[in-house]
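User: I'm preparing a small set of examples for a lab meeting where we compare how different chains pack in three dimensions. I only have the primary sequence for this one, and I'd like the structure in token form so I can line it up with the others. Please keep the answer compact; I'll paste it straight into my notes.
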Amino acid sequence: MQPEAESIPVAEQDPRFDADDDRASVNQGDEEDDYELGEGVHADDPDWAEKLLQEAMLVTPEAATTSNRVLVTMLDVVEWAKVESKHDVGKEMAKEGIYTRMRAYMTYRVDNGRKVQPVGEAEKIVHMNWNTLTQLRWDLVGLVTHKAAPAFTTEARREVIEELCVLSNHLKMKYGLHSQTSRAIPLGRPELLLMIKSCYDYPASWEVALQETTLFLMFWYTSVRPGSLLPTKTYKHHLTWKDIEVKPIYLNGVGADKGHLVLYGFSVNITIDTFKGYQYLQGMNLVYQARPVTQAKNILIDLDNTAMALALRRGLVEGYRNMESLRLDRPRIIRRTADGLKAPVFVAKMY
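Assistant: Understood. Below is the structure token output for the 351-residue chain.
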């Protein structure tokens, strides 16, 4: 159930690698040579390189998220140069030598992205996933295509893109990268209800139960990673109450309430501009709208009522401390206190 919210045969060793390069003999003679190069593109296809190039040439920064990825990648390359390639500081995006820099940067990311995982009494070194390297490759393709100065000609850009494609495939062979991912754990309405019920059945306090439920529902309605919403000592970009706009919804009453407006629920607009990795970028704002549920069985997954109850509990609504007084008074506008607008939605002892 959806929440009620609007809301890319290994050929003979490539001659571009020197014979004394330790990567030159990697996987020579291996039988498992059908590497995934891209959607519908395989090494046994004689036109695989051309297909990859055609796909790469379609990368454009028109979408806001793509533009932001290109900018974030450029900033990361700048930081890498300060530490690993100081002679390139100030000329990271210079056309001359840009492939050498991008090759060194990509290799650095793969080599330094390894983790050590315990396997019984032994240890296993795990590198980044092949899908992650593929995304990194496209980020660098976009970076070279749109940020290199002076700009590449179409033919020169094709050559650089081809080099990056060959390098990424070579790194995959060297480090044994794969596309396997962990088993997906579903999070649907039944699982969400179990999580929420556990909050209310075993609460540390009523406010804590409301906060945990609001966090679960915020993730479910928006799919935003919780780490982008929470304040910590080192991460000061977080969701505050000024980012949540609440409007009451009234319906004509029936029965004993006939002739009166009855508070039906709230319309909640949530503005999120705290995406980790993009928090310093302008224009990366997304607005999500949540409206009241229409069936009583779904009341536990009603984000607007839960968020409003949390704000009332903390005394952040002018003139009201509980939902009952709000329903009786039927205000047209819900005002938050000045201090309340600045307050984080989610608080912890470490904040």
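A couple of notes for your slides: The radius of gyration is 27 Å. The chain has two domains: 8-175, 189-342.

User: Perfect, thanks.
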